[in-house]
Automatic annotation (TrEMBL), chains A, B:
Thylakoid keyword on record: no
Protein name: Aminodeoxychorismate lyase
Reaction(s) the record says it catalyses: 4-amino-4-deoxychorismate = 4-aminobenzoate + pyruvate + H(+)
NCBIfam families in the cross-refs: pabC_Proteo, PRK06092.1
Domain of life: Bacteria
A molecular-function term among this protein's GO annotations: pyridoxal phosphate binding
Pathway: Cofactor biosynthesis; tetrahydrofolate biosynthesis; 4-aminobenzoate from chorismate: step 2/2
An example Gene Ontology CC term for this record: cytosol
E.C. numbers: 4.1.3.38
Organism: Candidatus Nitrosoglobus terrae
Amino acid sequence: MALPLIPLKVLVNGQISHKISIADRGLQYGDGLFETIAIYKESPILYELHLKRLEAGCYRLSLPLPKRETLNKEITTLCQGISRGVLKIIVTRGVSDRGYQPQPQSQSTRILSIHPWPDYPTISSEYGIRLRVCNTPLGRNSYLAGIKHLNRLEQVLARNEWIDPGISEGLMLDSQNNIISGTMSNLFIAKNGDLQTPDLSYCGVAGVMRKFILNQALALGIMAKIQPLTLVDITRAEEIFICNSLIGLWPVRSLNNIQYPLGSLTQRLRNLISAQLFCR
Amino acid sequence: MALPLIPLKVLVNGQISHKISIADRGLQYGDGLFETIAIYKESPILYELHLKRLEAGCYRLSLPLPKRETLNKEITTLCQGISRGVLKIIVTRGVSDRGYQPQPQSQSTRILSIHPWPDYPTISSEYGIRLRVCNTPLGRNSYLAGIKHLNRLEQVLARNEWIDPGISEGLMLDSQNNIISGTMSNLFIAKNGDLQTPDLSYCGVAGVMRKFILNQALALGIMAKIQPLTLVDITRAEEIFICNSLIGLWPVRSLNNIQYPLGSLTQRLRNLISAQLFCR
C-alpha cells in the first residue's frame, strides 16, 4: 500500500504547518526526541508511558519539556475523528546559531503529526514473522541509550540491508556482539516460562511496549529479566517475539535457519495486548 | 557578538527558502550529511576536499549525490559578494514515509546556506587555547566513522558540558578511552618533530583541515602518523594543536593542569595554512 508522503495533519508549535526552519537543531544535528504512538478510537495508546519516556529524554538532553496541558490539548485536537492511526511527536532544541553549543535561551520546537495506520499483515501477529541478523552495529554510549532521540542513522542503515518483504525485521547487535533490539522493535525471549529482554544500558531504545510487557509480566507473576543477551541465548530460546507501540507483539518464527514455535507465553502476551489496548 | 539566528542566504534544492518539510528524513532521523566550508574572497576554501568527503559520505549512506555542476552553480551564486563567510551544505535523503527504510526512489534534499564569519578571537590562533576533557563519550561504529553525518547528539552533549568562554574546545574520547577529536575539531600532537593524529576508523569525523595538514606534512617531509592515541600520549606530547575548516589551526596551550609551549612545528603549520588558504 502506498502511503501518502505527507502526514494527514500536522501542528508545528500549535500552528497548522508542514514546514520547519532549516536552522532547527532537529535537522542540523538530530538534536531532539520523538515518540510514535498508536491511536485507537481517538485516544493515544499507552500515552502516559510515552510521555514518561519523552520526559526522561528531555531530562537527559537538557531539553525544555513541552507543557503537558499544551500537548494534551493539541493531541486531543489532532486525534478527533481518528479511529485508528499513528501520532508522532517530535521535540527539538529549536532554532539556533550554527555550532553544537545549545543556547541557554533556546525554545524547543514541537511537531505533532497524524499518519495513517500502517495496516500490517494479520499474519505477522497471528502466525509470526521472519527475522534476520543485521551487519550494521549499534555504537555503545550510555549517555544516549534508552531514550528515543533523533540520531537514527544506525537504524536506517540496518533497515537498508534487506528488501525481501518476507523478512519483517532485523536484529541489531552492539559493537561487543550483545543483542540489543530490532531496527524498530524490542525483543524478548522465553525459556522455561520466564522472559528475558536485552539490557539497554549502553544502546537501544527502551520501548514503551517493552515496558508495558514488563509491567504485565510482573502483574501476572511471570519472571522477566533484563540482562545482556547474545546470539547463543537466542539460539537456545524456546520462544521469541518482538514488540513496539504500533505492531503490539509479533511472534518470531524464524531467525536465519532456526525455526521457533508459536509458544504459549508469546500467545498469552499477544492476546493480552490486543485485549487491553486495542479492544475497548 | 550576537549572530543572527537565520542564515544570510539559503537555497533549498536551488530555490530561495528558509524551510523544509517536516517529513524530511534529515529531521526525522538525521538521515543525511553536511559540510561546513570557509569562504574567502567569494571562493569556498578546500572545496575539492569537502566535496570528496561529501561524496564518500553519500556512498557510505547510499544517498544520491547532488550533481557537481548544480552544486558549483549554486555555490557560485551564494558566494557572490562574500569576502569572508561560512558556507554550509546539508544533503538529506529527502522526504519519505514514516519508517526507517529508505525508499529506492527517494530524491535527496540539498540545503546550501551562507552564514557570517564567526570572528574568532585572534588570540586563539596566535597565542593558543585552553582545552578540557569531556565526559560524554563517542560510541564506536565503523559504519558511521569518518563521514560528517547529521547524527551529532554526542557533540551537542559534549559541548554542553561547559560554559566557561575561556575554554575553547573539549576533547572527546571513545567508549574505550581512545582520544578521538575535539567536539568540532581534529587533534594533532607533535613529538620529536613528528606528528600524530587519532585513528578515526571507529568514530570521529575525518576533518578536511586534518587532511590538508596530513597532505602538507607529506609534502614537507614531516612524518605524520594516524594511530590510536590515549590521554597518556597527550600528556607526553611536546606540542598539541586542533584544527578545522573555519578556525584553521589553534595551538593548545593547556589541557586541564598541563601546560604546553607554542611549538615550532605548530607555528610552521599554522603560518602555512594562513599563507596558502587565506592570504591570496
